[in-house]
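Hey there, shall we discuss this one?
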Amino acid sequence: MLLLLGVFIILIMARAPIAFALLISSVTYLTRYGGVPLRVVTQRMAAGPDSFPLLAVPLFIMAGSLMNTGGITERIFDFARTLVGHWTGSLGHVNILASIIFSGMSGAAIADAGGLGVIEIEAMRAEGYDDDFSVAITAASSTIGPIIPPSIPMVVYGVVAGVSVGGLFIGGIIPGLLMAVSLGIMVYYYAVKRNYPKHPKATLPELWQSLKASFLPLMTPVIIIGGIFTGVFTPTEAAVVAVIYATILGTVIYGELTLKDLHRILLDTVETTASVMLIVATASLFGWILAREQIPQLVAEGLLGLTTNPILLMLLINIFLLIVGCFMETTAALTILIPVLLPTVTSVGIDPLHFGLVMILNLMIGLLTPPLGMVLNVLVSVSKVPFEDVARATMPFLVPLIVVLLLITYIPGLVLWLPRVVMGI
């Protein structure tokens, strides 16, 4: 295990791509100590992505790209501005509301930051907001995307943990709204402190015009979540519906999507999906080695040796996951750590669905923390603000997110109540 983990950590510190770090460390271990033929490598890597629910991943990636290119995100932002632009903090609250709406379509924080982020930062700059505040609230609000359904990390967790993806989707609604409220409080604090401008309250005719212009995009989360709630389609099928609906809106209704755009979106989707699935495949091999060497059992024994108190155990795991999120990509962290941590938490009576939301929110916070900070890197390219300044500005906004993390950790009903009511889970 020292060889396996040592090679992996050295490669990560050398900034090797996570998939190659997983693969090289696994092959190094198997060559030296495995005692199995190396064809196991290809077998295990092929088995990892071989899952029907994972079909949703490329489809939600594509749906997010279609919405960003087809004029949907602009309409969502304009509607949010009309609705809450008169609140103290104006475009900060607009930023959060737009992320809530967009999160019901894309399922990925990166899609939110890269798509809505461009519009939000430009609009806030035009109205005199400081760059540090604009980038920070854009980064923080983008983490709502994978918590409010649909969610690509929830699909991955559901597949690896054997938990209902639909239950995870529904369980994320209340935590996602809590994140929005907590970030809204931070926006209000900054707005009062820095005397940020706000818009006049929209009149009823203005609200009606904005609603009409954005009605069809706003129906996207209603169709996706409503279809899953009512059992009309599965989460995987919901991803297909999202792609079809976004394509119709962008091409037929708004006419902003061209064949050239579609070709580029398909290529981008293939590229992104390939990188995600390569991580899933190599993490599957890595995880198989950990399981073969009974590492999950050793971790469980070690943690339970420290404490069997669920409160203290979850605190230790939260600290561990926050650290992991600083260094590891979300999909890799999920596929590696779920088999390690899930047996431990279930042994003390923690519901796997509840733990899934806690784990995903931990890793979403990791998207905002150096040195990896994938959302931070996206916003650096969007805003042209140096990475160090973006990271520094985002730090205060981690506080409300960690508060929500503690709330859902120690009040399981915030996650489990809605799935039990809707799905009887």
